[in-house]
Amino acid sequence: MKFAAAAVLQFSEAVARCYAELYAYFLQPRARAGGNVHDLQIVATCIALGYTLLTSNVADFNKVPGLKIAQPKRVNVKAHYYQQIAGFWS
Asked: What is the pTM of this model?
């Protein structure tokens, strides 16, 4: 399996400000998200830089205002594996 090279994104001042705003928002009792600070850093990076978050864990991120979310297509890995083996022997 090949993976494309990914850029490392800096935790810039813009991302830090977005993180601080989100952190303050989720400290409010009515806005409890139940996430963790690491997820919030990822979310802040996406929002500040205008990226869409690709995750299969949509439920944990639905409550974040301003976040664009994309869910990957589910693939039946076992069936895909057997199709590749069958193609190899034919």
From this structure: 0.69
In SS3 terms, 17-62 reads as HHHHHHHHHHHCHHHCCCCCHHHHHHHHHHHHHCCEEECCCHHHCC
Domain 13-89 indexed as CATH 3.10.150.10 = no
Q: Which two tokens stand for residue 41?
A: 């850093």
What is the C-alpha end-to-end distance of the chain, expressed in Å?
22
> pLDDT digit string (tens) for 37-70?
788 999 999 999 999 999 988 888 888 889 999 9
Q: What is the pLDDT of residue 41?
A: 92
| Buried/exposed 4-15: b ≥16 CB within 10 Å, e otherwise | eeeeeeeeeeeb
Map out the domains of the chain as residue ranges: 13-89
- Cα separation, 75 vs 90, in Å, equals 23
What amino acid occupies position 51? Y
